[in-house]
Amino acid sequence: MNGIFYLVMAKLSIISTIRLYRITKNLYNRSLFVKAYKGSFLSIARGAKIVLKKGKLSINKGWVRNDPFPFLFVMGKNAYIEVDRSFDIYSGGKIYVNDNAHLSLGGGYINHNINISVFKKVTIGTECAIGENVVIRDSDNHTINGNEGISKPIVIGDHVWIGSNVTILKGVSIGDGSVVAAGSIVINDVPAGSLVGGVPALCFIS
What we know:
The protein is mainly beta.
């Protein structure tokens, strides 16, 4: 048991983990409830908060020993992350939860090289599997022809599987039990229990 503990500690970024501890409220009272692995780079503004309800949160976790890929984790002023169950986020990614934005993580995992940008709210349900190189953005970041609706929440339901190289854009809701095929760009809502794919993503099975 002690050997396993020291092996885990050797892989962690102690400074980054302590910084996350300081802004985290742990409702389940488990030890090592938030972990930032080596190669994690944090930018955390005043008022940012993480709330863990039942599980744990791991950032920049590696599939192999000595995983070389870094991870950028940014929380703006009063940014808020809540984690319902255990959630593992693997190496090489970027997560930006901007000022006053809200990221809700149910449970599951995100593979390498995720790119999540939250300007309003992004919700990911329980038991979700998200593949490599996925982009999730709830904002256009700029106006076009006077359009003011540049940010709209994204909701990903429970038991959703998102393949590699998928892009999910603002305002999209993906229903429970759906599958998004690799390489898709999702710009419209996906009904529960559907298989979608393509550019833009179309429904093959519902």
